[in-house]
Amino acid sequence: MGQDNAVNALRNIIKKESFHNGYIFSGTRGVGKTTLGRLFAKSLNCTNYNSEKGDACGVCTVCRKFKIMHTLI
Question: Which of 25, 36, 51, 62 is most open to solvent, judged by the fewest CB atoms within 10 Å of its CB?
Answer without folding.
Answer: 51
